[in-house]
Amino acid sequence: MQNITLIGMPGSGKTTLGKTLAEGLSYHFIDTDDVIIETYGQPLMELIDKHGTEGFITLEGKILQSIHTNRAVISTGGSAVYSDGAMQYLKSTGIVVYLHHQLDVLAQRVGNLVTRGVVCHSGCNTLEDLYEERCPLYEKYADLMVDFTGCTVEQCHEKLLKTVKAYLSEHSDC
């Protein structure tokens, strides 16, 4: 059976929603940020400082392409979309779901971009810059986009599960 890879901005709920989605589908859950930290033995921010933005993107891409599993919900770091090779690999293992939120909702959730360990390809300084840079990439790689505009947290969980189940049912030959 196929994997479900979640992509989206920092604060979009990839980890939180991913865990409940995995539970609802009886899949297992993988957080790739945790895999990176475990593999390299350092927090993301230290890895970004040590290797630079491009170096971190390369490390992240290698980790993403090393995940060999079935029936998993995979929560990626928001910067996963900077690695075309990694995204093509993830698409080959299942579906990619973009968790879309409006910028103002994300701003309430994210806090400080720097201390959070957020990578921006073009040197973004604000969440708005990051949003403008990444949204086209999320849309490019997504097989399915779930828009959470106006949803409570509970409604987000329900909408994601319902939407993914419907997609899987329609594409059961995948």
| Main sheet: strand order | 2-3-1-4-5
Going by helix content, strand content and strand pairing, the class is alpha/beta
Q: Alpha-carbon distance between the termini? A: 8 Å
Helix proportion range: 55-70%
- Overall shape: globular
Order of helices and strands: EHEHHEHEHHHEH
Number of strands: 5
Strand content: 5-15%
Number of helices: 8
Mean pLDDT: 89
Instruction: Give the C-alpha Rg.
Output: 15 Å
Largest sheet: 5 strands, parallel
Q: Return residue spans where pLDDT drops below 50 for at least 5 consecutive residues.
A: none
Name the features.
single chain; 174 residues; alpha/beta; 5-stranded parallel sheet; 8 helices; 14% strand; globular
Can you lay out the helices and strands and say which pair or pack?
Layout: E1 3-7, H1 14-25, E2 28-31, H2 32-40, H3 44-65, E3 72-75, H4 84-92, E4 94-100, H5 103-110, H6 113-116, H7 127-141, E5 144-147, H8 153-170
Protein model, in words:
With 174 residues, the protein is of the alpha/beta class. It is built from eight helices and five strands. Strands 2-3-1-4-5 form a five-stranded parallel β-sheet, with helices on both faces. The protein is globular, with a radius of gyration of 15 Å. The model has no long low-confidence stretch (mean pLDDT 89).
Brief synopsis:
By secondary structure, the protein is α/β, with parallel strands linked by helices. The protein has helices spanning 14-25, 32-40, 44-65, 84-92, 103-110, 113-116, 127-141, 153-170, and strands at residues 3-7, 28-31, 72-75, 94-100, 144-147.
